[in-house]
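Q: May I have one protein plus its fold?
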Amino acid sequence: QVQLVESGGGLVQPGGSLRLSCATSGFAFSSYAMRWYRQVPGKERELVAQIFSAGGITNYAGSMRGRVTISRDNAKNTVYLQMNSLKPEDTAVYYCYTYIVGVHYWGQGTQVTVSS
């Protein structure tokens, strides 16, 4: 059974940093690309970052580009999202995602709130 479990969210002041983690199980983690998305209430879920399985190639999207780094530890079956210089508009629920043999898998999400 594929499981994605995010952690690391919380309340942070503007300009601060957080590192999100997504622990996975139930599939060959090292063989699949992983993504982080975020969603603000009332808006569509948007892609933040992607990391491919081979060579750790990464892509970034949206307004967080340049302030986030996605990485993975294949030995721990975990993907990370390091977020720096956080802004109030980064407040959202952040989700881990993967796509395996035609099926979309999402974690439960972790809330990030940027506020003074």
